[in-house]
Amino acid sequence: MAHEYFSPLELSDSSQCLCGILSGRKKTREPKEENVTLGPTVREGEQVFGVAHIFASFNDTFIHVTDLSGRETLVRITGGMKVKADRDESSPYAAMLAAQDVAQRCKELGITALHIKLRATGGNKTKTPGPGAQSALRALARAGMKIGRIEDVTPIPTDSTRRKGGRRGRRL
């Protein structure tokens, strides 16, 4: 039968813990107030850029703001989050409301300027941006966001799967 030996340090630590538990004392720590600042630190008059990915299909409009690398999502709002009716999700009005919310959130985070990446459905579907694209961009500019570069990132196939519609195409 082997005996376990405790060092005096181990015993004193455990006895202090037991005394604290048995005596009913609670350890109270005062909460420290920390100043949490959102966004990067910048000098006066310096622009802080984000990237606004605007995806405008004919069913909805997404406005998704990330940092410059595109890894960190800062805010993402869609037209469908702003209106009740399904048919209005892609409307210019819903896109405008979404863009206003995005601009307000960007200002809270300290972002003052945006590069725009505009995208339509693309692929073997339509390459034309939906109705919300233009109004979303206009609303961002009107809300006080500086616009950097505007780029069209619609995926265009170099060789694709077959388009729908059959051999003779869509007949009107």
TrEMBL record:
It comes from the Eukaryota. SUPFAM superfamilies: Translational machinery components. GO terms for cellular component: ribonucleoprotein complex; ribosome. GO terms for molecular function: structural constituent of ribosome. The keyword RNA-binding does not apply. Keywords: Ribonucleoprotein, Ribosomal protein. Pfam families: Ribosomal_S11. One of its GO terms (biological process) is translation. InterPro entries: Ribosomal_uS11 (IPR001971), Ribosomal_uS11_CS (IPR018102), Ribosomal_uS11_sf (IPR036967). NCBIfam families: PRK09607.1 (NF007176). Belongs to the universal ribosomal protein uS11 family. HAMAP family: Ribosomal_uS11 (MF_01310). This is 40S ribosomal protein S14.
